[in-house]
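Lecture 7 notes: from sequence to structure.

We start with a single chain of 537 residues. Read the sequence below before looking at the structure.
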Amino acid sequence: MSGFARISLITFVGACSVFGQSFDIADVHVSPHSDWAGASYHTVAGGYLSGDRYELRRATMLDMIHTAYNVDADRVYGGPSWLDYDRFEVVAKTKPDTPDETLRVMLQRLLADRFGLVVKPDTRPVPGYTLSKGKGELKIKAASGAGYVGCRYGSLLSLGDPSGSKVNIQCHAVTMQSFAETLERAVSGLGGHSPVVDATKLEGAWDIELHYPQPRGAAGPVVAEELSKLGLALESGQVPQPVLTVEKVNEQPSPNPPGVEAALPARPLPQFEVASVRLTNRESGVSMGLRFEAGGRVTASGMAPGFLIEQAWNLPSFEQIVGLPKSFSGSSTAKNITIVAKAPAGWFPKEAANANTEARDILYAMLQSLLIDRYDMKFHFEDLPEDALTLVANKPKPARADPANRTGCVREGQQQQGHALMVKLVCRNITMAQFAEQMPAFDPRILYPVQESTGLEGAWDFTLNYDAMAGLRQQMMGILARRFPVDAAAAQEPDDPSGLPSFLDAVQKQLGLKVETHKRPEKVLVIDHMLDNPKEN
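Now the structure, written as tokens:
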């Protein structure tokens, strides 16, 4: 089914759902600001049914429309400026095993009832590609024989080839429509979305194998050149795409119905059903992070307790935890542990649990309980003076905002180049206070909330170009210099392979702002007691 047909059908079903299925009861409210400000851009969680409970956490209205109507966020037009900034919580009750399609319809009705949301399906031309038959001989084959159906990505290492590795796409028994959808991934790159429309008029199923050099810039021209050798053409231009237009929506949800708290009580903190924790065999040399496996099994191998504490309590990375036993510090792996545990049934989605933000939050809550029990941990949080950043004005360069733009910062381009990750960050209609609260999401060195003291009133539009890995490299060099004393020259940041500054340097150079470091009280985890070794299983 085409994207337009899918959107049109779901919209029609959603319109009819006013008289159909809906959640039994739902709690809808604004997300606490502290839960999402400064978090990474993948902050939305949930969107699946666990038992009889459906939850969608830290979701913008754009996230909720995307979930309810199964349409890419960049194909949602119109609406107020806060559509992709303000965040909300949805906790609802319905029958266990309700199909995903029905849950989407239920969410559509909930958005209409509680936010007054009205959307309209439409078609608009957007930048993309058209796949058609080329002028030469067609060199793809009609599908034959048994085997998998679909496309597989891989890479080929070209020994002796200065261009390095090549991308390998192998498709078996696919329609040209399916192949065009696969090409979208190839030409879009990190964080992008460039649709590919099939105009080949080739019917049936095909076997297609495509190799092309790993592109240093835009992938479209490289992919087009290789497709031409197969008798296919890929041309850039405006292509029609199905979209949704937001015609009406309220910023505040209507009040919850009576009885919500009794019907949707807070769930108890989850714990593993059973778990084994033991010191890792030093000779194994295996280190693998906490992950889900089949049958509710959860494992981790050769992990440092300090790192697991950082994960479980969502602490700033690479910082020494106050009160951590000395035996856990430094580069020694003697205290690293291996965990084999079983999660209780019904807590996690059946698919893609490792990639689901809320599932990871639940997993880390279980990890907290496990570490407290096996290490006899006693701890508290305390406000201690820490190095925190303040954003001030120097020679500000941002432009006054277009009030028609949606508020927020979006990565409009990401490109890997060697050890660098070049990012184009576009911020629109955003106040300096809003920008400051988001800064920790863009640089790993920003461990605590940024205080805004620029004195710049109103909203602004600006663009930053930076190397997202530069801050991490600088941070690692500083850690190595502190933990393993070396001479000053050896601890210097190596030449920047991208020619671009780090995020913080870009803020100062490209925006004319200044980032100052000051001691401020920040909440820190303090360990009062912790065993050197985990208790026996």
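The first helix runs from residue 3 to 16. Keep this in mind for problem set 3.
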